[in-house]
Amino acid sequence: MLQIMHLFWHSTVPTILFPYILIYDKTYDDIIRRRLLIDGDGGNDDKRINSLLRMLVRWCNMPENDEESHLTYQRMLATLAQCEYNMEKSVLVYEMNLTEQKKYEHLNQDIEEKISEATSKIIDCKQELQEAKRIRKNRQEYDALAKVIQRHPDRLETTKQLQELDKELVKLKNHKNQIQEKLDLRRKQFHVLISAIHDLEGILEDDEKKEDMETN
Predict the structure, then answer these.
(1) CA 88 to CA 43: how far, in whole Å?
(2) Domain that holds residue 30
(3) What PANTHER family would the database entry show (predicted)?
């Protein structure tokens, strides 16, 4: 833009335009002054841009070989460089925030999946526990029946029934042991999963604290 204005300065512009530029310069001073009062401490980039435009208008009204003209030109370059730096910095911060947002979204999705998996395993454990209770009840009933049958040991049929009941009891005991082992394994897996979820929540809290500290 400065190069364009430099060409504009050296071009054959009708001298009738320069009075309007001077009037615009004074009017623009009032606009800048009101804008600064409204913005306060914020809007630094807007202030720099407004200051740049203001210097540009003044620079256009200065003699070509004047030292002040050269200094104003250098100030405009410095102000423009600062604006470009702030713009690039804002873009980098925006991209960093997007990356962090995606990271937290993936982490939150993983936590939700872990919670869903843990809930499913808890339901399975409850069902297996109900099955174990039913087996225990059946075993108690079989034990009571076996005691009744044992009162008549002289009957062959009773003996056969006892043998069948004993076999069934052995099967039930084995089945119960298998279910108990599964329950123990599920409990261990559940505790590990809960610990992992707590660790993930701790990581999230630490990241949020770090981000708050960096933001402040």
Answers:
(1) 16
(2) 22-151
(3) MAINTENANCE OF KILLER 16 MAK16 PROTEIN-RELATED, THO COMPLEX SUBUNIT 7 HOMOLOG
